[in-house]
Amino acid sequence: RLLLARELSKAGRVNEAEAVYVESLSGNQTAEVYRGLFELQARQGRRGLRKILARLDAAIAGAIQAPALPGVSDPNDTANARTMLLVVRTSPALQARVLEAAIEAKVSPATRSTLGTQASRLGHLALAEALYRGCLDEPMGEVEAETYSGLIQVLQLRHRHEEVAEVARHGLGKARTTPK
Question: pTM of this prediction?
Answer without folding.
Answer: 0.86
